[in-house]
Specification:
Largest sheet: 4 strands, parallel
CATH class: Alpha Beta
CATH architecture: 3-Layer(aba) Sandwich
Distance between the termini: 33 Å
Number of helices: 5
Strand content: 5-15%
CATH superfamily: Flavodoxin domain
Helix content: 40-55%
Oligomer: single chain
Radius of gyration: 16 Å
Order of helices and strands: HEHEHEEHH
Shape: globular
Structural class: alpha/beta
Number of strands: 4
């Protein structure tokens, strides 16, 4: 996505660049979201914030969608970015599951959690099980919100 710039909007703020329009269509059509991101400078990454912002322009595509967060970081495992994303989600009307939470302390022992070939595959069995529980909770919450 291009960096958010209202000068790129057309049609009085109702038209967007093609990449943004395609992204917003995917957001609108999604049943739920799993946000997975590392923590940078105690916050969410710039590309994630940019995506959140673009899909909230005009009609907020995020509104009333269920979501879960998993994050990775240093001594707090990405917890600060998770809580920051939750704050942004309040304004965007994203409905996050509360539990379970998954914070991966990956910066200190990256080889313990992720493969070393640069693909970022999660290899730690305990963390994989915890991720499974997050996904099961998100699935149940999505079905409950849709009922």
């Amino acid at each position: 996505l291009p960096m958010l710039n209202i000068d790129l909007e057309t049609d009085g703020g109702r038209g967007f660049p093609a990449a943004v329009e395609a992204f917003c269509a995917k957001v609108r059509n999604a049943d739920c979201f799993l946000f997975a991101s590392p923590e940078y400078n105690y916050s969410i990454t710039s590309p994630l914030k940019n995506a959140l912002d673009w899909a909230s322009r005009g009609v907020n595509c995020w509104a009333d969608k269920p979501a879960a967060i998993v994050c990775a970081g240093a001594n707090f495992g990405g917890g600060r970015s998770s809580y920051h994303l939750r704050q942004v989600g309040v304004f965007l009307d994203i409905h996050f599951i509360n539990k379970p939470e998954l914070f991966v302390f990956a910066f200190y022992e990256p080889g313990k959690f992720f493969d070393g070939d640069g693909n970022g595959n999660l290899i730690d069995a305990e963390t994989r099980e915890r991720l499974k529980q997050v996904l099961l909770s998100l699935h149940a919450f999505t079905l409950w919100l849709g009922s």
